[in-house]
Amino acid sequence: GEDVEQSLFLSVREGDSSVINCTYTDSSSTYLYWYKQEPGAGLQLLTYIFSNMDMKQDQRLTVLLNKKDKHLSLRIADTQTGDSAIYFCAEMGNTDKLIFGTGTRLQVFP
Amino acid sequence: ETGVTQSPTHLIKTRGQQVTLRCSSQSGHNTVSWYQQALGQGPQFIFQYYREEENGRGNFPPRFSGLQFPNYSSELNVNALELDDSALYLCASSGTANEQFFGPGTRLTVL
Residue A46 pLDDT more than 70? Predict the structure, then answer.
């Protein structure tokens, strides 16, 4: 079956790095995504990684994929208060639908 | 380039009523997907339209239906509303299958 799991909360100090983790079950996933959702808003696509890659870096964001363990992580360097939001991990398999986790609420404190 | 837009922003209905939500896809995108996001949950896939045809459906009853128009905009219709239909309804458009860009959503409250 398809399932995506994330921890619910993460709290970090401004300027530190944040690491948000995700596990998925569908071994046929072709793409894995990170979306950001601010209060009352839609989803913003942050980055995605193709399943044959191990790592992708995009400015302050680093995505690591361990396909053997079906584990995905998002590292945010130099976390700022504007990074406070809910972060969703999502997978896409053979169909074009996204399967989302329940989201990780990131709180950044000064 | 215009992003994905949705209307209305908020909507209040009563049980048993019908509702139509609208989505305009991003310029150049021919695929629209609809998702339901209940409070505190991740979005759940409802269905997808590609070039005016349904192209996949999630685990939602037939009272959830949709349309896509020649300009690739889309509607989501929900009949016989239930209290559990209260949620944020998100539309996403894509030009290539691996990138879906979301609109701001429509908040539906069913009383």
Answer: yes
